[in-house]
Each structure stands twice: as C-alpha cells, then as structure tokens.
C-alpha cells in the first residue's frame, strides 16, 4: 500500500515564528477509521481509498510527507471577556492542500494531543463532538452554507475523561483557513504591528485577493469580512441554526462557519432560544446572533486600528463601515426569507408578511423547518395547534405569490426537508459510543440531499417527541 500523496504547500507555516508553535500530533494507542468523506477527498484531489487504508494518518500517529504541523496562536473574547492567549489547544494544522483547481485548504486534526496552548486541557476530543461536527458541518455544506468541512473521523483506542470515561476520537477538518478574528486580536493585544501587518497582507492574499491594491487595505478588509459575516449569519437565521458559541476565536475571517460545539437547530420557533449550557445570559440566543456578529466585528476593527495610521481617523473609518452592518444583514435576511415563502420579486410589504408569519409561528411554537417546508407541500397548517393563526396569514400570502413566477420550486430548493435535528444527532452519538455507526452513516447519507424528497426518511424529518427533545447542549469537547 503506497501512502497517500498530499500536495501540501504550507504558507501559514512560513509566516513568522510567533504565529504558531511547531507541534507534532501526539500518537494514540490504536487508530481506527470511522469514515472518510469521499466527495470531499475528491474535491481536494486526494485519494479517499488511500486515506481510508491509512488511519494512522488520520489520528496523527504518522505525519504525511510534506506536512509542517503547527498549533496556531490566537486570542479571543469569550462571552465578552478577553483572553489574550487561547490558540490551538487540541488541534493541529497539518498544512495546506492545494486542490487540482488551485484552491487552497487547511488540513487540520482536532483531538490530536496537547500543544503549548493546551493550558489545563488534555488536547483530546471524544467521539461525541467529533461525530457531531462531522455530521452537522457536512449537513451545512449540503445546505449551501459556507463552512469548515469534515474529511475524516477516527477513534483512538484511548479513553478521554469528560465527567465520565469516553472513547477518544480525532476529526480531520478542512477549512478555507483557520484565521480568526482572534488571530488579529492576538497580535493587537501584544502591540505587534509587524505581525498584524503581515497577517493583514496574508489574509487579503488568501481570501480577498481583489483587495491587494486597495488604498486603505485594512478598512477594505474590514468591509469585506463584515459583508461575509452578515451574509453568513443571515444564512444561519434562515435555517434556524443556533451556533451557540460565537466568541471572536470562533469567527473565521474567511466567512465560513467554524466550531460546531454546542450548536443546535430550532424546532419550535423562538427568537430567545438558547441551547448551550454555559450561555446562561442568552448572549448567543438565536435572535441575538446578528448582534453578536456585529459586536465581534467591532473587536475585529479594534484589532486593525494599530496598522491604520492616525488612530482617530482609523476609528472613524471603521465605525462608518461597522454602521453598515444592520443594512447589509437586513437586506440579506429579507432576500433569504422572501425566497423561503416563494417570493423572487420585491414588494414593500414583504418584510411585514415574513414577520407576521414568524410571530404566529412563535405564538404557536410551530416547528421552524417543517413550517417553511410545509408551505410548498400544503402541510404548514398542521404545524399550528390552531390552524386559524396560519390560515389568516396564508390568505395574504397566497395573494402575494399569485403573480410570482415559480414559488413552489423556489420554496422547495430553499426550505430543507431535512436538517441535522438535535435529537437525531444525540441518538447517533449514543449508538456510536456502543459501536453502532449505522445511524451516523444514515444521517450523513440523508443530509447530503436535504432538499430532496427521500423515501424512508420520515423519522428524520419529524420533530422531536416530548421525551426526545434536546433542551441543552454542551461544549463537552
Ligand atoms: P472552543 O470553545 O471549543 O472554541 O475552545 C476554546 C479554547 O479552549 C481553544 O483555545 C481550545 O484550543 C481550547 N480547548 C478546548 N478543549 C480543549 C482540550 N480538550 N484540550 C486543550 N485545549 C482545549
Ligand atoms: Mg473554537
């Protein structure tokens, strides 16, 4: 068996030493493959079969030729409080793979052992969060949401202690990059302007090459990142997705969703909904996500100021850009929710039409995903205990979509039939812990085509029963 060839080109590891700590993964007792994501491997130009035959590579027991493993340095605001030193405490960036079409992707291991950034952590991950991230990130990708991806998962044959003994696992994560708002904050906190300038240039070259010659590069990057984040959060909102831990170290400047920790999807529509056990103040509640993103962008702006010349002038320029957030976000939100109710044109009454539906869904505790999907199939009213609340709205709505070109088709490709329902994800993890990976495989297969009608997936599309409902989620990594 020849080892898989990976076309590494490790530009991040060529940045100055203080961007990272060189760190090899720490080998585990008994690497065993759970899954390799064949379509993603193909996208990257990797041989899925060769990867699958080499689980040692997927736990870090062997480092692929051409990799230059590093633990990345970053800081971050966690629930509003600033930590100047976080960094990869249980992850390692192996390097960057350049795909056949020239696109560059980070290849990283999560759960690969302690690093200089581990603080009191063990550097490991257990099977539950590894499989949750695999399933939910791949489901988000299939929904068309910018996201990090899962290339592989493997068990370690070791026990990890998380209140009780758990099976250890490693996730192989693929990302446009792992540069976070917190990466900028790390250098800003040290007043390391040279590093900040290098990071700015690197980020532009890698993610926003159109801005290379912009006269005010930092402000241009700020506006571009703001645009991607506003659109990303609008996408989450349009799917009922609650990220759960929107700290600045979990906000990627590429505009991808990163860090699937305590994330969950709404069932009954409720803007105040919180799942994460540690989010006691509801800072990252469903309806607060746009505000949290804007707050994080404010921190990003602060970190850019030191490389922007005159401080007051810089703050003024960045503030003016930050003030565009609500407008950019609201426009995208409305575009997405219009599509969700079958509207491709624009009418001044559309926002109110959408908001009235949401208000009634809230009052009726109607399932977010099933109600929107049900608009195209005629099943939406059934999500309301008292269908009158829906029918009153639906009269206005039917009037509005009468002149629309193809509302039903639009709704069917906008509103998924299947999302990674929280209780299904939990049941999948419970089965995997006792060695049954069939639910994991079934979920991955079904969620790869979330907009299609798939016979035999009725249980996956159903709302959780009262005894199955997930009310709380845990970082529990
Ligand atoms: P997260 O909330 O998952 O984004 O993690 C926040 C910080 O805690 C990051 O710096 C992680 O590297 C670190 N961390 C989380 N879990 C562990 C662990 N098991 N061992 C070491 N560091 C960890
Ligand atoms: Mg994180």
How would you portray this structure in words?
With 477 residues, the protein is an alpha+beta fold. Among the domains are: 12-175, no CATH class; 334-414, no CATH class. The protein has helices at residues 38-44, 48-52, 55-59, 127-142, 181-189, 193-207, 217-239, 289-304, 311-322, 325-340, 350-364, 368-377, 387-401, 407-414, 422-433, 438-447, 458-461, and strands at residues 20-22, 32-36, 70-72, 76-78, 81-83, 91-98, 104-110, 125-126, 149-162, 164-175, 241-242, 264-265. The strands form four sheets. Strands 2, 6, 7, 8, 9 and 10 form a six-stranded antiparallel beta sheet that branches. Strands 1-3 form a two-stranded antiparallel ribbon. The chain has a two-stranded antiparallel ribbon with strand order 4-5. Bound molecules: adenosine monophosphate and magnesium ion (MG). Magnesium ion binds next to loops.
Put the structure in a nutshell.
This protein has 477 residues and is an alpha+beta fold.
Helix content: 40-55%
Cofactors, ions and other ligands in the entry = adenosine monophosphate, magnesium ion
Q: Alpha-carbon distance between the termini?
A: 34 Å
Into which percentage range does the β-strand content fall? 5-15%
* Number of helical elements: 17
Cα-based radius of gyration, to the nearest Å: 23 Å
Poorly predicted runs: none
Average pLDDT value?
Answer: 97
Characterize the overall form.
globular
Q: What profile does the largest beta sheet have?
A: 6 strands, antiparallel
């Amino acid at each position: 068996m020849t080892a898989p060839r990976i076309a590494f080109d490790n530009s991040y590891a060529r940045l100055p030493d203080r961007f990272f700590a060189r760190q090899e993964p720490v080998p585990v007792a008994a690497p065993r493959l759970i899954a390799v994501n064949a379509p993603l491997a193909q996208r990257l130009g990797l041989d899925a079969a060769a990867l699958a035959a080499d689980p040692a590579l997927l736990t870090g027991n062997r480092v692929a030729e051409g990799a230059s493993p590093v633990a990345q340095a970053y800081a971050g605001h966690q629930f509003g409080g600033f930590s100047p030193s976080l960094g990869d405490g249980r992850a390692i960036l192996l390097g960057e793979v350049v795909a056949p079409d020239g696109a560059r992707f980070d290849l990283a291991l999560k759960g690969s052992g302690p690093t200089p950034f581990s603080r009191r952590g063990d550097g490991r991950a257990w099977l539950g969060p590894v499989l949750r991230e695999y399933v939910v990130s791949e489901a988000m990708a299939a929904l068309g949401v910018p996201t990090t991806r899962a290339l592989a998962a493997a068990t370690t044959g070791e026990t990890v202690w998380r209140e009780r003994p758990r099976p250890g696992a490693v996730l192989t994560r693929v990302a446009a990059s792992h540069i976070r708002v917190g990466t900028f904050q790390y250098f800003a906190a040290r007043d390391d302007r040279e590093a900040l300038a290098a990071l700015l240039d690197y980020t532009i070259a890698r993610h926003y090459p159109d801005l290379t010659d912009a006269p005010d590069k930092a402000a241009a990057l700020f506006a571009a990142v703001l645009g991607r984040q506003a659109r990303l959060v609008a996408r989450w909102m349009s799917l009922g997705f609650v990220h759960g831990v929107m700290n600045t170290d979990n906000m990627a400047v590429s505009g991808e969703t990163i860090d699937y920790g305590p994330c969950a999807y709404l069932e009954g529509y409720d803007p105040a909904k919180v799942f994460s056990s540690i989010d006691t103040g509801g800072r990252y509640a469903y309806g607060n996500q746009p505000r949290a993103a804007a707050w994080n962008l404010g921190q990003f702006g602060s970190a850019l100021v030191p490389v922007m010349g005159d401080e007051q002038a810089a703050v003024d320029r960045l503030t003016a850009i930050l003030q565009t957030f609500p407008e950019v976000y609201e426009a995208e939100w409305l575009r997405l929710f219009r599509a969700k109710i079958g509207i491709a044109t624009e009418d001044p009454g559309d926002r109110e039409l959408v908001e009235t539906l949401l208000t009634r869904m809230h009052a009726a505790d109607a399932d977010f995903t099933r109600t929107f999907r049900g608009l195209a199939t005629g099943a939406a009213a059934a999500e309301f205990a008292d269908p009158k609340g829906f029918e009153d709205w639906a009269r206005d709505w039917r009037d509005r979509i009468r002149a629309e070109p193809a509302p039903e088709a639009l709704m069917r490709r906008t509103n998924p039939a299947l999302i990674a329902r929280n209780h299904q994800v939990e049941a999948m993890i419970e089965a995997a812990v006792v060695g049954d990976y069939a639910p994991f495989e079934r979920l991955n297969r079904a969620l790869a085509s979330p907009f299609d009608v798939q016979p035999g997936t009725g249980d996956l599309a159903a709302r959780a029963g009262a005894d199955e409902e997930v009310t709380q989620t845990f970082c529990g990594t």
